[in-house]
Amino acid sequence: MDNASYKEVTKSDRYEILAMLREAKKRNGSVEFIHDGKIISSNFIELDLSGFQIIAELDEVALDSPFIMVIQGTTEKIAFNSQLIARSATLHRLTFSFPSEIAITQRRSSVRVTIPDQFGFICEGRFRDGYVHRMAIKDLSLRGVQLICSGTLPTLTKPGMLLKSMVLNLQNYGQYPVDLTLLNLKEITHFDADSAQSNYFSLSCAFAKPSVVLTRRMEEVLMELILDIKRLQRTR
After folding, report:
1. Residues 179, 161 contacting (CB under 8 angstroms)
2. % of the chain residues with pLDDT over 70
3. CA 107 – CA 74 distance, rounded (Å)
4. How does DSSP classify residue 220?
5. How far apart are CA 63 and CA 83, in angstroms?
6. Which residues 6+ apart lie within 8 Å of 30 measured at CB?
7. Count of other CB atoms within 10 angstroms of residue 58
8. CA distance 236 to 231
9. Nearest to 208 by CA among 168, 163, 170
10. Strand 38-48 and strand 175-191: pairing?
11. Which DSSP state fits 97?
12. How far is it, in rounded angstroms, from Cα 5 to Cα 141?
């Protein structure tokens, strides 16, 4: 982690923590944790000072089992410890304890914008397996993109690989040819509010030697996106 670009602070006031978690819930932020070696993702169902509920299927997990929860925000990452305090097997609802402290890692210079599904942003290009693949763009920043692969992961895909001549199709915001370096690869199991399960791969990519022109255009696109997403949220 680049200490010049990140700053970590902690919060222990219960009401301040509640306000921050409610804001994350309002933005449809999902919470992630690791269970049995797998990354589980789910959205908040209920949230108050007594704890919070999510939907997930966890087999043979004892009450009071500890978990490390992570919420990825636009400009920050929130992490905290919590314990499983109740479960409903029929509804797959899990209740966790309210955190006594949260750690917030703030990005000082790089805003990351989570892209609403209805925007339909796509990254496409040829992978190492020789085939052209299209993946949804989950978020965008000046430094790179996070891609979602909902199908089978292309063979030979691994961190450190260079994806050349990819195209970012940002719909009304333009199309941009880029080279991407794959930084991180995660397999995630997600549960939605209706208990439906989906599995996908998350690919964190950095722009490889971006031009000045691309960087300036991405700055403009990010500002446009932030304003447009705020307008969209106000109309809900």
Report:
1. no
2. 94
3. 9
4. H
5. 8
6. 41, 42, 43, 71, 72, 190
7. 15
8. 9
9. 163
10. parallel
11. P
12. 13
**DSSP code, position 9:** E
Please give the structure tokens belonging to residue 216. 């300036």
pLDDT-derived band of residue 3, with 50, 70 and 90 as boundaries?
very low
DSSP for 149-177, written as a single string? E-SPPPTT--TT-EEEEEEEE-GGG-EEE
Instruction: In whole angstroms, give the CA distance from residue 185 to residue 63.
Output: 31
- Determine the Cα–Cα distance for residues 76 and 19; give it in Å rounded to an integer: 15
Say what the pLDDT of residue 74 is.
66
DSSP letter (8 states) at residue 227? H
* Lowest mean pLDDT segment, chosen from 136-150, 162-176, 189-203: 189-203
Contact yes or no for 181/157 (Cβ under 8 A): no
